[in-house]
Amino acid sequence: NIVCLWSYPQIEAAMLLNMMLPFQHGKQNVYFVGYAPLINHLGLRHISEFCGIDPLKNEAFLLAAMAAYPKYYGHFKRLLLSDCDMHLKHLEKGALVHPLFTTYGCPNGCTFCPSTENCGRKRFSLSIKQTEEMLLQCHEKGIRYIHFTDEDFFFNPLRAYSILEKIRYMDFHLIALGSAVKVEKFINDYGTDILRESGIEVIEIGFESGDEELSNEMGAGKDASACRRLAERQHEIPASIFWLVQTFFPGETLETLNATGAFMRQFGFSENEVVGRLKTNGTKG
Fold first, then answer.
1. Whole-model pTM above 0.85?
2. Which residues contact 177 (CB under 8 A, 6 or more apart)?
């Protein structure tokens, strides 16, 4: 049994699984993958004890695993992307959103991010050709709804454009994460038509805090000014921007929280839109 432990809210569930699965199976066969410092701190068995490597730091493993994703979609009994899949309105028609990595990891070192810690502040990247082959596999399988789960799909704007250019007019419906600085550069360099024509419908951006100084302290991937510039251009961008917020980062004050709130009131989704994200992730609330 392999359990993913990625963040602090999952601790209780992980500890329970660590007790109950051996009770059910009669053997100590539970291993944890995810945020290694947290797994080790809790005294849980890390996946490296089973397979001899930490897969999230092993470039050969990661590249092979990312490239094989489309081949194994059919092996999953359930495919659930937390609340991310709800960004695609087509889910109300029963569509299933599939995750797809084209890169793993990030060198920015944002202090709250487990991914940058896990990968040793590196980014492991598939080639444009490999990414194109994965997307063609998805297309052949009838998979059109895809969430690019890269930490920053737009980290290299030319690479992102080259990938999206290959899938123009192929009826994909896509979500991609990106930093405000790189998304802004992408739009400045290549315009917005490519976003619509390739099927990018939602771009998730870590806004985190409306306070510029606090935003800078979080890490190299954060830029509140770039977020505001993009937000003010939302009317010309065919994709919706979903702003992610880090509410209680160390150093927050009422003033900084109010700055974040003011930004979200002006540029964020409405309450109904946010609550609507609960419709497909099995959460009643």
1. yes
2. 148, 149, 150, 151, 152, 153, 203, 204, 205, 206
